[in-house]
Amino acid sequence: MDSLTPTPTHTPEFQAPLEVTDGQHSALIDDTLALLNNGVPTQADQYGLTEIGRWTEVLRASEKTGLAKIIQELTSLREQLTSDSIDSHTLAETLATLGAETSKVADDASSGYGPPLAQLGKLLIKLGSSLSR
């Protein structure tokens, strides 16, 4: 291949939706609550970025409505945390929006997920508030 030959494109194969059990949902919520209960991270570590990635994939695979804004904010959060300079005001707004959207989802959640999701929403809003000071 010479330098003038276009790079071949790869068409991804069909992927079946991600199957997530109730136990995995509960573990993901518990892991995230444990991470955030330690306070505002001083830097983006691999554990936090892994949690953001896990949530993004689970929410994308979900068939529930009303998750697009959360996915968008998670993507924004990942970008902010991996950038060279973190703007605490923007990060605070993102966390507060994530909290508000999570609280909305908690109101409609079934299978006992409402209370832990409501707790997660409140915690995200609290972290956002602490950053904006």
TrEMBL record:
Q: The organism sits in which domain of life?
A: Bacteria
The identity of this protein, by name, is: Uncharacterized protein
The organism encoding this protein is Solirubrum puertoriconensis
